[in-house]
Every structure is written in structure tokens, then in C-alpha cells.
Amino acid sequence: MIALVNLDVIREFFPAGVGDRVMEECARRLKDQARFGDIVARAGGDQFAVLLIDLPESDSGLARANELFRALRTIRVGDVVMPIDARCGLARGRPFLLPSDLRFDELYERAERALTRARAFGTAVAVED
Fold first, then answer.
1. Nearest to 47 by CA among 30, 59, 32
2. pLDDT in tens, 87-121
3. Percentage of the residues of the chain whose pLDDT score is greater than 90
4. Whole-angstrom Cα distance, residue 77 to residue 39?
């Protein structure tokens, strides 16, 4: 899960519609960063869900999270360049493949808990094991 933590500030201080344009540009950039098979979706509010498919067991996802952050670093809307402050909640698991694997809703809930911790502690990324 990725949340844009300064979206409320953007919506408060910029004209109507700028926040929506920021979200649209963030969605486009996240989709551009997706690999074949990855899924990017708007999860509501200021959040996106990014399902990274086929990460090696040794990969925690932190490198991919950093790549996504770099893609979102600044957004230009008209003549204004805005810094984007984002937080990420990571959860590892394989949904649907084997009976012992997590269901998608379980994986999603774990990512939301990690995102809540990242927001609460002001860290860029939190991981839910």
C-alpha cells in the first residue's frame, strides 16, 4: 500500500482539481513502474495498492518500494512542481496459489497495518511479516 501523505495539504492550498490531477499523475507513474504481471489500483482516498508478482523469496520488496518513491518524488501540475511525500506498507505473501498461502484480503489487511505504522512513526516504509 502506498499513501500520499501530503495530498490533503495540496487539496487545501491549490485550486480545485489539482489534487485529482496529482492522483492521476501518481497512478500513471506507478503503472509505468509496474513489471509484467504487477497490479496497480487506486485503493481509495490517498492510497494505491501495488501487488508485486513473483518477487524472489530473498526480496523484501524494499528496493521496489524505493523505485516507486523515486517515481513519485515530484509532480508537475501546470507551472507548479510539488514534492510528494509518500508512505508505504509492505506485506509479503503469495495469494491464492496454495492452501497455505494468504487470501488476498489477508494480504491487503497486513499491508494496511504496515501502512498505518509507517504513517504513525513517520517512516517511509513499514513491513508486516
1. 30
2. 999 987 765 666 666 778 888 899 999 999 999 99
3. 51
4. 25
Strand partners, 34: none
β-pairing, 86-91 with 125-128?
A: parallel
- Looking up cell 496454495, which residue turns up? 98
**Structural domains of the chain, count:** 1
Angle CA(20)–CA(22)–CA(27) in degrees, nearest 5? 95
Domain that holds residue 10: 2-128
Q: 39-44 and 47-51: which strand pairing?
A: antiparallel
Q: What is the CATH number for 89?
A: 3.30.70.270
Q: Tell me the pTM.
A: 0.86
Write down the H helix ranges in the chain.
7-13, 18-33, 62-72, 104-121
